Amino acid sequence: MTNIDYVKVFESSSAFPRPSSFCPSYGTAGFRADASLLLSTLFRCGLLVAARSLLLGKSCGLMITASHNQVSDNGVKLIEPDGSMLPQDWEPAATALAQCSTDQEVVDSLRSILTTGVSASTLNTPSCEGILSVLFGYDNRPSAPDLLKAAVAGVAALGVQHQDVGFVTTPMMHFVVHQWNSPCRPASTHEAQETYFETLIGAFEQLVEGLPRPPDGGQLLIDCANGVGAHHLVKVQQRLWSAGLQMVLFNTGDGQLNMECGADHVQKERVAPTGFPELKPYSRCCSVDGDADRLVYFTVAGSTSEGTTMLLLDGDKIASLTAAFIKDLLKQLPDSVGSDIKVGVIQTAYANGASTSYVKEQLLLSVECTPTGVKYLHQAAHSYDVGVYWEANGHGTVLFSAELLRRLEKAERVCSAAKDLLLLSKVINQTVGDAFSGILLVEAVLRRKAWSLSQWDGLYQDMPSRQIKLKVADRALITVEDAERKCVTPAGLQKDIDALISEYPAGSRAFVRPSGTEDAVRVYSEAPTQEQANDLACRVGKAVYLQAGGVGPMP
Ligand code: NG1
Ligand code: ZN
To answer: Is 89 helix (H, G, I), strand (E, B) or coil?
Structure first.
């Protein structure tokens, strides 16, 4: 094990004291808070990611972003050498380190991480300092440069080198870290970014080769949320135009990040983003979030006297389209290749009930429900040969098992479905949910099926749903089980929720959980009509407010 200079760690830590009232914890997607609070957290994440790199003997990554949150927030996500997310058994150590009150506690916490390796499985892995470094990426928030300096100081305190990858989307960063640790390591992180685009676009071009452009001319209006995605999408516009995909970019940085735009806004508010032109019925539109790891499609149906109807094609619809396409291809494989392939669709409690029924009853595929957060879905997807996972908010991807890929490679010369599945596995960023990869995936599948947006939308009709959030004094008092569908505490709250649900028609449901990224409690409901869903969410919100110490206006 490397000799760690703990005196240096102590001294470096003293420049980044934790604000006394700030108690960070590793949430649904890393640490996230108002950026002004985060310097100590970033310094300590620098220590942690450097420690992890030393223990594994490989280069880890650190991405500075708060995704779809407002511009004054920021956050940090840690990335494993293979491009996956920080293992869950490291999360308590990350929280403990971030919460230390003194520099001595920081040193002690770090020492304990390094000496125990957190879990026995990482203890004996040799270090190989010198060839490893920590990779840093960030989005376009104004707080990024200061937070980056704090993280660099943390990594330097352990004597580990770093590479500045620059402005990147979160999924690009996962891909770059994966590449950096692969046997054919690129010469620079810039080259790794080029490989990212070449891999995804190259596979897309082959999937759509020779197919006619869509009837709408292939125009796709993209809301970039004024985030980092725009920075990269402009560079590939020309090449994709040649492949029949005309990306027209909006909210490319002239407005405020995520302000009335972005995938979260479009999905939760069910409105077109700001800055969009008046839409023609069924024109193709999509929206990505601030760090471009989420994607939702939307359009408008024909207008009525009350205006146009917004159609949202969310993560559930993307998952359903993808699963249907993959299932068709798998059916075409010869028995020797495709007889015993295990396919699963992984969702959370927020998945629309109609999508779950579609996958189970129409596609006849198994559905698994996990707690919110892609780390849970991703882990569950690993137990299938093809694990299709998406959150309703548009965050998801598909994982192909190594064994299946080997079989497909053997068969690709003689079987076009095997070749197509291999191309799909390249269009899809398997390290993490990726909006750009999602766009290429959806566009390729629609082109292959010669489907319009309305045909895609017609796979199933969403059950009316409603999501609200409210504030309580301490959201940690709300605890949940059964993949977050049942409330354990406060005692009695679930009984009240059940009683409310029983007043609505069969098939109605509602649940409550504390957010892992915001100081809020989320309430979700589904019912046969929109009025009933709104009403149910509001009444469940009131029950939470009364039983869990609501703050501010009652729903
Ligand atoms: P929280 O705030 O824990 O609900 C939100 C999303 C998650 C996930 C994370 C990370 C909803 C209901 N929740 O988590 O799905 O995307 O942010 O960004 O959309
Ligand atoms: Zn995001």
So the answer is: helix
Q: Which ligand number lies closest to the CA of residue 262?
A: 2
Q: Which atom of ligand 1 is nearest to the CA of 68?
A: 18
CA-proximal residue: ligand 1, atom 19 (nearest): 393
* 350 pocket-lining for ligand 1 (C-beta < 6 Å): yes
Q: Is 395 in the pocket of ligand 1 (CB under 6 A)?
A: yes
| 337-376 tens-digit pLDDT | 888 999 999 999 999 999 999 999 999 999 999 999 999 9
pLDDT of residue 476: 93
Overall fold of domain 465-548? TATA-Binding Protein (3.30.310)
- Ligand 1 atom 12 nearest Cα: 350
Q: Is 323 annotated as a binding residue?
A: no
The overall average pLDDT reported for the chain is: 94
157-182 pLDDT tens trace: 999 999 999 999 999 999 999 999 99
pLDDT given for residue 233 in this prediction: 97
What is the Cβ-side half-sphere exposure of residue 356, based on CA atoms within 13 angstroms? 16
Measured from the CB, is residue 516 less than 6 Å from ligand 1? yes
Question: How many Cα atoms occupy the beta-carbon half-sphere of 22 within 13 Å?
Answer: 16
Among candidate residues 278, 261, 276, the one with its CA nearest the CA of residue 68: 261
Class of domain 315-457 (CATH, top level) = alpha beta
CATH number assigned to the domain covering 211-313: 3.40.120
Q: Where are the domains of the chain?
A: 6-188, 211-313, 315-457, 465-548
Strands (E), 43-179: 61-64, 73-79, 133-138, 161-167
Report the distance separating Cα 422 and Cα 405, nearest Å: 7
Residue 391 counted as an annotated binding residue: yes
| Separation between Cα atoms, residue 140 and residue 219, nearest integer Å | 27
